[in-house]
Protein backbone atom coordinates (compact mmCIF):
# COMPACT_ATOMS: atom_id res chain seq x y z
CA UNK A 1 0.00 0.00 0.00
CA UNK A 2 1.28 3.49 -0.85
CA UNK A 3 2.09 6.02 1.86
CA UNK A 4 -0.70 8.41 2.89
CA UNK A 5 -0.82 11.91 1.46
CA UNK A 6 -2.74 15.05 2.32
CA UNK A 7 -4.90 15.80 -0.72
CA UNK A 8 -7.02 18.71 -1.87
CA UNK A 9 -10.71 17.74 -1.78
CA UNK A 10 -12.16 21.15 -2.65
CA UNK A 11 -11.23 24.78 -3.24
CA UNK A 12 -13.11 28.08 -3.11
CA UNK A 13 -12.68 31.85 -3.29
CA UNK A 14 -14.43 35.04 -2.30
CA UNK A 15 -13.66 38.35 -3.96
CA UNK A 16 -15.13 41.77 -3.14
CA UNK A 17 -17.14 43.10 -6.07
CA UNK A 18 -15.69 46.65 -6.10
CA UNK A 19 -12.95 47.03 -8.74
CA UNK A 20 -10.31 49.76 -8.62
CA UNK A 21 -8.56 50.26 -11.98
CA UNK A 22 -5.18 51.88 -12.56
CA UNK A 23 -7.00 54.84 -14.09
CA UNK A 24 -8.92 55.30 -10.82
CA UNK A 25 -5.64 56.14 -9.00
CA UNK A 26 -5.05 59.12 -11.27
CA UNK A 27 -8.63 60.23 -10.63
CA UNK A 28 -7.88 60.00 -6.87
CA UNK A 29 -5.03 62.48 -7.35
CA UNK A 30 -2.15 60.00 -7.04
CA UNK A 31 0.81 60.84 -9.27
CA UNK A 32 0.86 57.65 -11.32
CA UNK A 33 -0.45 56.24 -14.58
CA UNK A 34 -1.96 53.06 -15.99
CA UNK A 35 1.09 52.76 -18.28
CA UNK A 36 3.59 52.93 -15.39
CA UNK A 37 1.73 50.38 -13.24
CA UNK A 38 1.05 47.89 -16.04
CA UNK A 39 4.62 48.07 -17.33
CA UNK A 40 6.32 47.65 -13.92
CA UNK A 41 3.88 45.16 -12.35
CA UNK A 42 1.46 43.71 -14.92
CA UNK A 43 -1.45 44.87 -12.73
CA UNK A 44 -4.46 46.52 -14.44
CA UNK A 45 -7.00 46.38 -11.63
CA UNK A 46 -7.63 44.99 -8.15
CA UNK A 47 -10.69 44.28 -6.00
CA UNK A 48 -11.18 46.37 -2.87
CA UNK A 49 -13.35 45.51 0.13
CA UNK A 50 -16.00 48.06 1.02
CA UNK A 51 -17.32 49.03 4.44
CA UNK A 52 -18.75 45.94 6.11
CA UNK A 53 -16.63 43.54 4.01
CA UNK A 54 -14.21 41.96 6.47
CA UNK A 55 -11.33 39.50 6.42
CA UNK A 56 -13.61 37.09 8.30
CA UNK A 57 -16.45 37.54 5.81
CA UNK A 58 -14.22 36.91 2.79
CA UNK A 59 -12.54 33.94 4.54
CA UNK A 60 -15.90 32.37 5.39
CA UNK A 61 -17.16 32.88 1.83
CA UNK A 62 -14.13 31.10 0.36
CA UNK A 63 -14.36 28.37 3.01
CA UNK A 64 -18.04 27.66 2.30
CA UNK A 65 -17.28 27.18 -1.39
CA UNK A 66 -14.35 24.84 -0.63
CA UNK A 67 -16.44 22.81 1.84
CA UNK A 68 -19.30 22.51 -0.62
CA UNK A 69 -16.99 21.26 -3.39
CA UNK A 70 -15.36 18.81 -0.95
CA UNK A 71 -18.81 17.72 0.35
CA UNK A 72 -17.69 18.52 3.89
CA UNK A 73 -20.18 19.64 6.54
CA UNK A 74 -19.16 22.35 9.05
CA UNK A 75 -19.05 19.86 11.95
CA UNK A 76 -16.65 17.63 10.01
CA UNK A 77 -13.87 20.25 10.00
CA UNK A 78 -11.21 19.41 12.61
CA UNK A 79 -8.88 22.39 12.21
CA UNK A 80 -9.21 25.85 10.65
CA UNK A 81 -5.93 27.55 9.73
CA UNK A 82 -6.37 31.14 8.58
CA UNK A 83 -3.37 32.80 7.02
CA UNK A 84 -3.70 36.57 7.18
CA UNK A 85 -1.64 39.72 7.60
CA UNK A 86 -4.88 41.67 8.08
CA UNK A 87 -6.80 40.12 10.99
CA UNK A 88 -10.06 41.93 11.75
CA UNK A 89 -9.00 42.37 15.38
CA UNK A 90 -5.66 41.79 17.06
CA UNK A 91 -7.29 39.59 19.71
CA UNK A 92 -8.68 36.98 19.35
CA UNK A 93 -7.61 35.33 16.10
CA UNK A 94 -9.87 35.99 13.11
CA UNK A 95 -9.96 32.20 12.58
CA UNK A 96 -12.32 31.82 15.56
CA UNK A 97 -14.70 34.37 14.04
CA UNK A 98 -14.61 32.27 10.85
CA UNK A 99 -15.30 29.15 12.90
CA UNK A 100 -18.33 30.80 14.49
CA UNK A 101 -19.61 32.07 11.14
CA UNK A 102 -19.28 28.61 9.55
CA UNK A 103 -20.74 26.78 12.56
CA UNK A 104 -17.68 24.50 12.55
CA UNK A 105 -18.33 23.61 16.17
CA UNK A 106 -15.83 20.74 16.50
CA UNK A 107 -12.87 22.62 15.00
CA UNK A 108 -9.85 24.21 16.60
CA UNK A 109 -9.01 27.48 14.87
CA UNK A 110 -5.98 29.73 14.74
CA UNK A 111 -4.36 32.44 12.62
CA UNK A 112 -1.01 31.95 10.94
CA UNK A 113 1.24 34.92 10.22
CA UNK A 114 3.77 34.46 7.41
CA UNK A 115 2.62 37.24 5.08
CA UNK A 116 2.31 36.24 1.40
CA UNK A 117 3.83 32.81 2.14
CA UNK A 118 1.23 32.05 4.80
CA UNK A 119 -1.12 29.87 2.77
CA UNK A 120 1.65 27.45 1.76
CA UNK A 121 2.92 27.48 5.36
CA UNK A 122 -0.66 26.67 6.42
CA UNK A 123 -0.90 23.77 3.98
CA UNK A 124 2.34 22.43 5.46
CA UNK A 125 0.93 22.60 8.99
CA UNK A 126 -2.35 21.04 7.82
CA UNK A 127 -0.50 18.20 6.10
CA UNK A 128 1.44 17.53 9.30
CA UNK A 129 -1.75 17.38 11.39
CA UNK A 130 -3.32 14.95 8.91
CA UNK A 131 -0.30 12.66 8.60
CA UNK A 132 0.31 12.51 12.37
CA UNK A 133 -3.31 11.53 12.96
CA UNK A 134 -4.42 14.70 14.79
CA UNK A 135 -6.92 15.72 12.12
CA UNK A 136 -8.86 14.18 9.24
CA UNK A 137 -10.19 17.36 7.66
CA UNK A 138 -8.30 20.65 7.69
CA UNK A 139 -9.57 23.92 6.22
CA UNK A 140 -6.71 26.17 5.11
CA UNK A 141 -7.71 29.73 4.21
CA UNK A 142 -5.78 32.76 2.95
CA UNK A 143 -7.77 35.98 3.43
CA UNK A 144 -6.54 39.56 3.18
CA UNK A 145 -7.98 43.03 3.38
CA UNK A 146 -4.76 44.73 2.27
CA UNK A 147 -6.67 47.93 1.50
CA UNK A 148 -6.98 48.46 5.27
CA UNK A 149 -3.20 48.55 5.85
CA UNK A 150 -1.74 50.20 2.73
CA UNK A 151 -0.86 53.87 2.66
CA UNK A 152 -3.17 55.32 0.00
CA UNK A 153 -0.84 58.32 -0.36
CA UNK A 154 2.22 56.14 -1.19
CA UNK A 155 2.19 55.38 -4.92
CA UNK A 156 4.95 52.78 -4.64
CA UNK A 157 2.88 50.47 -2.43
CA UNK A 158 -0.84 51.18 -2.75
CA UNK A 159 -0.98 50.32 -6.45
CA UNK A 160 0.29 46.76 -5.99
CA UNK A 161 -2.09 45.30 -3.41
CA UNK A 162 -5.69 44.02 -3.50
CA UNK A 163 -8.25 42.21 -1.34
CA UNK A 164 -9.75 38.71 -1.46
CA UNK A 165 -9.75 35.20 -0.02
CA UNK A 166 -9.16 31.63 -1.13
CA UNK A 167 -9.45 28.31 0.68
CA UNK A 168 -8.93 24.57 0.37
CA UNK A 169 -10.00 21.47 2.25
CA UNK A 170 -7.18 19.01 2.93
CA UNK A 171 -7.91 15.34 3.72
CA UNK A 172 -5.95 12.11 3.90
CA UNK A 173 -5.59 10.06 0.70
CA UNK A 174 -4.02 6.72 -0.18
CA UNK A 175 -4.33 7.10 -3.95
CA UNK A 176 -0.93 8.69 -4.57
CA UNK A 177 -2.54 12.12 -4.86
CA UNK A 178 -1.85 15.12 -2.69
CA UNK A 179 1.19 16.99 -1.45
CA UNK A 180 4.30 15.32 -2.91
CA UNK A 181 6.91 17.72 -1.53
CA UNK A 182 7.22 21.06 0.18
CA UNK A 183 9.81 23.59 1.26
CA UNK A 184 9.71 26.58 3.65
CA UNK A 185 12.29 29.21 4.57
CA UNK A 186 12.52 32.56 6.38
CA UNK A 187 15.14 35.28 6.81
CA UNK A 188 14.26 37.68 9.62
CA UNK A 189 17.40 39.76 9.08
CA UNK A 190 15.53 41.35 6.14
CA UNK A 191 12.28 42.03 8.02
CA UNK A 192 12.52 45.82 7.69
CA UNK A 193 12.35 45.78 3.89
CA UNK A 194 8.60 45.10 3.96
CA UNK A 195 6.81 45.83 7.22
CA UNK A 196 4.47 47.94 9.32
CA UNK A 197 6.75 49.79 11.74
CA UNK A 198 4.11 50.61 14.36
CA UNK A 199 0.73 49.64 15.72
CA UNK A 200 1.94 46.46 17.42
CA UNK A 201 3.02 45.87 21.02
CA UNK A 202 6.47 47.44 20.64
CA UNK A 203 5.11 50.74 19.30
CA UNK A 204 1.38 50.87 20.02
CA UNK A 205 -1.01 53.17 18.20
CA UNK A 206 -0.68 56.80 19.24
CA UNK A 207 -1.30 60.19 17.70
CA UNK A 208 2.35 60.32 16.62
CA UNK A 209 2.03 56.96 14.87
CA UNK A 210 -1.14 58.04 13.11
CA UNK A 211 0.47 61.33 12.07
CA UNK A 212 3.53 59.74 10.45
CA UNK A 213 1.46 56.84 9.05
CA UNK A 214 3.93 54.31 10.44
CA UNK A 215 1.14 51.80 11.17
CA UNK A 216 0.83 51.28 7.40
CA UNK A 217 2.83 49.07 5.02
CA UNK A 218 6.30 50.25 4.04
CA UNK A 219 8.21 48.50 1.31
CA UNK A 220 11.64 48.83 -0.30
CA UNK A 221 10.25 47.75 -3.68
CA UNK A 222 13.46 47.18 -5.60
CA UNK A 223 15.12 45.11 -2.85
CA UNK A 224 11.93 43.10 -2.36
CA UNK A 225 11.75 42.47 -6.10
CA UNK A 226 15.29 41.06 -6.25
CA UNK A 227 14.82 38.90 -3.16
CA UNK A 228 11.51 37.59 -4.50
CA UNK A 229 13.05 36.41 -7.77
CA UNK A 230 16.03 34.83 -5.98
CA UNK A 231 13.96 33.12 -3.28
CA UNK A 232 11.10 31.90 -5.47
CA UNK A 233 13.61 30.44 -7.94
CA UNK A 234 15.39 28.63 -5.12
CA UNK A 235 12.10 27.43 -3.64
CA UNK A 236 10.96 26.05 -7.01
CA UNK A 237 14.23 24.10 -7.30
CA UNK A 238 13.95 22.64 -3.79
CA UNK A 239 10.34 21.38 -4.09
CA UNK A 240 11.00 19.91 -7.56
CA UNK A 241 14.15 18.13 -6.33
CA UNK A 242 12.34 16.74 -3.28
CA UNK A 243 9.59 15.35 -5.54
CA UNK A 244 12.25 13.98 -7.91
CA UNK A 245 10.84 16.06 -10.76
CA UNK A 246 11.98 18.84 -13.10
CA UNK A 247 10.11 21.79 -14.58
CA UNK A 248 9.29 19.60 -17.58
CA UNK A 249 7.11 17.36 -15.38
CA UNK A 250 4.95 20.26 -14.20
CA UNK A 251 1.50 20.64 -15.81
CA UNK A 252 0.77 23.97 -14.12
CA UNK A 253 2.75 26.43 -12.01
CA UNK A 254 0.73 28.60 -9.65
CA UNK A 255 3.04 31.33 -8.34
CA UNK A 256 2.28 34.04 -5.81
CA UNK A 257 0.78 36.91 -7.80
CA UNK A 258 2.84 39.95 -6.83
CA UNK A 259 4.33 41.18 -10.09
CA UNK A 260 4.26 39.57 -13.54
CA UNK A 261 7.99 40.20 -13.97
CA UNK A 262 8.75 38.20 -10.80
CA UNK A 263 6.48 35.41 -12.09
CA UNK A 264 8.18 35.34 -15.51
CA UNK A 265 11.66 35.24 -13.98
CA UNK A 266 10.73 32.38 -11.66
CA UNK A 267 9.10 30.38 -14.47
CA UNK A 268 12.15 30.89 -16.68
CA UNK A 269 14.46 29.69 -13.92
CA UNK A 270 12.32 26.58 -13.37
CA UNK A 271 12.18 25.95 -17.14
CA UNK A 272 8.38 26.12 -17.19
CA UNK A 273 6.83 27.85 -20.26
CA UNK A 274 4.46 30.74 -19.54
CA UNK A 275 1.51 28.86 -21.10
CA UNK A 276 1.76 26.52 -18.10
CA UNK A 277 1.87 29.36 -15.58
CA UNK A 278 -1.36 30.67 -14.08
CA UNK A 279 -1.41 34.46 -14.03
CA UNK A 280 -4.22 36.62 -12.67
CA UNK A 281 -2.18 39.43 -11.11
CA UNK A 282 -3.55 41.69 -13.87
CA UNK A 283 -7.06 41.39 -12.37
CA UNK A 284 -6.35 41.08 -8.62
CA UNK A 285 -2.99 42.69 -7.84
CA UNK A 286 -1.13 41.21 -4.88
CA UNK A 287 -3.65 39.71 -2.46
CA UNK A 288 -0.84 38.45 -0.20
CA UNK A 289 -1.61 35.00 1.21
CA UNK A 290 -4.92 34.82 -0.69
CA UNK A 291 -3.19 35.00 -4.07
CA UNK A 292 -2.29 31.33 -4.59
CA UNK A 293 -5.61 29.86 -3.35
CA UNK A 294 -7.57 32.34 -5.51
CA UNK A 295 -5.47 31.42 -8.56
CA UNK A 296 -5.74 27.69 -7.80
CA UNK A 297 -9.51 27.91 -7.46
CA UNK A 298 -9.83 29.80 -10.75
CA UNK A 299 -7.62 27.28 -12.54
CA UNK A 300 -9.69 24.38 -11.12
CA UNK A 301 -12.96 26.05 -12.13
CA UNK A 302 -11.67 26.64 -15.66
CA UNK A 303 -10.74 22.95 -15.97
CA UNK A 304 -7.05 23.79 -16.31
CA UNK A 305 -6.01 21.30 -13.62
CA UNK A 306 -7.21 17.83 -14.59
CA UNK A 307 -7.13 14.65 -12.52
CA UNK A 308 -3.55 13.54 -12.05
CA UNK A 309 -2.09 16.97 -12.97
CA UNK A 310 1.15 17.90 -11.23
CA UNK A 311 1.16 21.46 -9.92
CA UNK A 312 4.04 23.57 -8.54
CA UNK A 313 3.08 26.37 -6.14
CA UNK A 314 5.73 28.88 -5.12
CA UNK A 315 5.62 32.04 -3.03
CA UNK A 316 7.52 34.83 -1.29
CA UNK A 317 6.56 37.48 1.24
CA UNK A 318 7.38 39.79 4.11
CA UNK A 319 9.67 38.34 6.75
CA UNK A 320 11.19 37.48 4.40
CA UNK A 321 9.42 34.18 4.06
CA UNK A 322 9.29 31.90 1.05
CA UNK A 323 7.89 28.47 0.29
CA UNK A 324 6.99 25.99 -2.42
CA UNK A 325 4.99 22.81 -2.85
CA UNK A 326 4.43 20.14 -5.50
CA UNK A 327 0.94 18.64 -5.52
CA UNK A 328 -0.59 15.83 -7.58
CA UNK A 329 -4.32 16.48 -8.10
N1 LIG B 1 3.66 55.43 -10.44
C1 LIG B 1 4.61 56.19 -10.98
N2 LIG B 1 5.87 56.21 -10.53
C2 LIG B 1 6.15 55.45 -9.47
C3 LIG B 1 5.20 54.64 -8.83
C4 LIG B 1 3.89 54.66 -9.36
N3 LIG B 1 2.90 53.91 -8.84
N4 LIG B 1 5.78 53.98 -7.81
C5 LIG B 1 7.07 54.37 -7.78
N5 LIG B 1 7.30 55.25 -8.78
C6 LIG B 1 8.55 55.93 -9.12
C7 LIG B 1 9.48 56.07 -7.94
O1 LIG B 1 9.15 57.19 -7.17
C8 LIG B 1 10.81 56.23 -8.63
O2 LIG B 1 10.95 57.54 -9.06
P1 LIG B 1 12.38 58.28 -9.01
O3 LIG B 1 13.26 57.48 -9.92
O4 LIG B 1 12.05 59.64 -9.48
O5 LIG B 1 12.82 58.21 -7.57
C9 LIG B 1 10.69 55.34 -9.86
O6 LIG B 1 9.28 55.14 -10.05
C10 LIG B 1 11.37 54.00 -9.71
O7 LIG B 1 11.00 53.44 -8.46
P2 LIG B 1 11.35 51.97 -8.10
O8 LIG B 1 10.78 51.65 -6.74
O9 LIG B 1 12.80 51.71 -8.30
O10 LIG B 1 10.51 51.21 -9.24
P3 LIG B 1 10.47 49.70 -9.59
O11 LIG B 1 10.70 49.49 -11.03
O12 LIG B 1 11.30 48.88 -8.65
O13 LIG B 1 8.93 49.34 -9.36
C11 LIG B 1 7.63 48.19 -7.74
C12 LIG B 1 8.36 49.46 -8.07
C13 LIG B 1 7.03 48.32 -6.34
C14 LIG B 1 6.49 48.00 -8.73
C15 LIG B 1 8.60 47.01 -7.83
O14 LIG B 1 9.78 47.32 -7.13
C16 LIG B 1 8.04 45.74 -7.29
O15 LIG B 1 7.13 45.17 -7.84
N6 LIG B 1 8.66 45.23 -6.20
C17 LIG B 1 8.22 44.03 -5.58
C18 LIG B 1 6.96 44.30 -4.81
C19 LIG B 1 6.37 43.05 -4.29
O16 LIG B 1 6.26 42.10 -4.99
N7 LIG B 1 5.97 43.11 -3.03
C20 LIG B 1 5.31 42.08 -2.38
C21 LIG B 1 6.18 40.91 -2.19
S1 LIG B 1 5.21 39.68 -1.55
Q: What is the C-alpha radius of gyration, as a whole number of Å? A: 19 Å
CATH class of the largest domain: Alpha Beta
Strand order of the largest sheet: 1-7-6-4-5
SS summary, helix count: 11
Principal-axes shape call? globular
In percent, how much strand structure appears in the residues? 15-25%
CATH superfamily of the largest domain, by name, is Thiolase/Chalcone synthase
Order of helices and strands: EEHHEHEHEHEHEEEHEHEHHHEE
Structural class, from secondary structure content?
Answer: alpha/beta
Calculate the mean pLDDT score and round it: 97
- Chemical compounds bound to the protein: coenzyme A
Would you give the CATH topology of the largest domain? Answer: Peroxisomal Thiolase, Chain A, domain 1
Number of domains: 2
Q: How many strand units?
A: 13
Quick summary of this structure?
By secondary structure, the protein is α/β, with parallel strands linked by helices. Helices cover about 35% and strands about 25% of the residues.
Structural notes for this entry:
The chain has 329 residues and is α/β, with parallel strands linked by helices. The protein folds into two domains: 171 residues, Thiolase/Chalcone synthase (Peroxisomal Thiolase, Chain A, domain 1, 3-Layer(aba) Sandwich); 150 residues, 3-Layer(aba) Sandwich (Peroxisomal Thiolase, Chain A, domain 1). 33% of the residues lie in helices and 24% in strands. The protein is built from eleven helices and 13 strands. The chain has a five-stranded mixed beta sheet, sandwiched between helices. A four-stranded mixed beta sheet has the order 8-13-12-11, sandwiched between helices. Strands 2-3 form a two-stranded antiparallel sheet. Helix 4 links the parallel strand 4 and strand 5. Helix 3 packs across helix 4 and helix 8 packs parallel to helix 9. The longest helix has 22 residues. The two termini are 19 Å apart. The relative contact order is 0.19. The model has no long low-confidence stretch (mean pLDDT 97).
Amino acid sequence: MSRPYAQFSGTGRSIPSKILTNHDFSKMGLETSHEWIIERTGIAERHIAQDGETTCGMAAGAAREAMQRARVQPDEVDVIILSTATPDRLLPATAVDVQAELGASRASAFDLSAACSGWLYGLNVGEGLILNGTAETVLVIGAEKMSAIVDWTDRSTCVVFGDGAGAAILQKSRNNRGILSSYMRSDGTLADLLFRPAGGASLPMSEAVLADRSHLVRMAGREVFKAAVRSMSEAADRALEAANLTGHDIDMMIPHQANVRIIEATAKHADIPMDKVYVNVDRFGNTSSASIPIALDEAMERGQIGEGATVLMVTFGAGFTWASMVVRF
